[in-house]
Specification:
It catalyses: hydrogencarbonate + H(+) = CO2 + H2O. The chain is mainly β. It is built from five helices and 20 strands. It is globular, with a radius of gyration of 19 Å. It binds zinc ion (ZN).
């Protein structure tokens, strides 16, 4: 499986490592080792310096995902995502205004199986559909939303909060038309994207999600797509609009560090049957060996010297606030998509 990789010279150091991989959503690579997982919580320079380390730490795990078999341009690594948000270390910023979201249901185009996740596309030319306020200097247009989920309920979210992970995570991806002429260019540019992240936990059915869950059987295989009809994604946002924000990257290739992340504190509830519907999708195309689409999340990345700001006071500043009571997240140390229910799991 190493045949797909071209590796440039460079130290095993996230801030300076440049390497290229040809990527597609293909068959999974060899499973990662326990050794490779160590680097997910710290820069590679602290533990391994050999070429083998470069392969393990910077390619297979923890930077990548077993499904990434193609060419990836990873320019650096000082602000990669996702991260483990530590509430006590986040900085309350009273200057952060509320985030304003206004979406046009009519701009919803279709839902498709990308071969890695389930994605709902919107007309990116629709000016009125997007977000502003919060940490954003400009209005950002909605381009698409998608989900990441696990094989089981203990893990599946990309971000974690105080080492807690959730069964799934929603990402609403927006781009900045004030700085870039198109989404394609915004993906690679400074302040090009703003992504809202919402954790999913099990509970009551989310009626708004059922419209999507109902069409998933029609996109079971890779590259399948189907019209979804009008859909307003604001119904997928939690009632509480408190959030964390930090500068990060895409969590899928090209992993560009162009993202202002806005991670909602409050999860939304979905029924177990709704989450199970996502697990019936396949990574594979028709005619290929069937592989369940599960654990399509990237491992946690080092925070390094970044600051996570919050729009609300941390628990130590507001003793009455006990968000643990509304969280059903599972405490998992470095969930890795390749173990033990990796993409090979059926
Ligand atoms: Zn995502």
């Amino acid at each position: 499986m190493l045949r797909a990789m071209t590796l440039a010279k460079g130290p095993c150091k996230p801030s300076r490592t440049h390497f290229l991989l040809t990527w597609t959503w293909g068959a999974p690579l060899a499973p990662a080792t326990g050794r490779a997982r160590q680097c997910s919580q710290q820069p590679c320079t602290q533990s391994h310096r050999s070429n083998t380390c470069l392969l393990l730490c910077c390619w297979m795990q923890p930077s990548g995902h077993p499904r990434w078999t193609g060419q990836v341009s990873l320019p650096g690594g000082t602000r990669q995502s996702p991260i483990n948000i530590r509430r006590r270390d986040s900085v309350y910023d009273p200057q952060l205004p509320p985030l304003r979201a206004s979406y046009s249901a009519a701009s919803c185009q279709h839902v498709w199986n990308t071969g890695y996740l389930c994605q709902v596309e919107f007309d990116e030319a629709s000016e009125g559909s997007g977000i502003s306020g919060g940490p954003l200097e400009n209005h950002y247009r909605l381009k698409q939303f998608h989900f990441h989920w696990g094989a089981g309920d203990a893990r599946g979210s990309e971000h974690a909060v105080d080492d807690l992970t959730f069964p799934a995570e929603l990402h609403l991806v927006h781009w900045n038309p004030s700085r870039y002429p198109s989404y394609r260019e915004a993906v690679l540019g400074e302040k090009g994207l703003a992504v809202i992240a919402v954790f999913l936990q099990l509970g009551a059915p989310l009626q708004a999600l059922q419209q999507l869950a109902d069409v998933l059987p029609e996109i079971k295989h890779k590259d399948a797509q189907v019209a979804l009809g009008p859909f307003d994604p604001s119904c997928l946002l939690p009632a509480c609009r408190d959030y964390w924000t930090y500068a990060g990257s895409l969590t899928t290739p090209p992993l560009s560090e162009s993202v202002t992340w806005i991670v909602h504190k409050q999860p939304i509830e979905v029924a177990p049957s709704q989450l199970s519907a996502f697990r019936t999708l396949l990574f594979s195309a028709p005619g290929e060996e069937e592989e369940a689409m599960v654990n399509n999340y990237r491992p946690l990345q080092p925070l390094m010297d970044r600051e996570v700001r919050s729009s609300f006071r941390a628990p130590t500043q507001s003793p009455r606030e006990r968000p643990e009571q509304m969280w059903q997240g599972r405490r998992v140390l470095q969930a890795s998509p390749s173990e033990p229910h990796g993409p090979r799991a059926k």
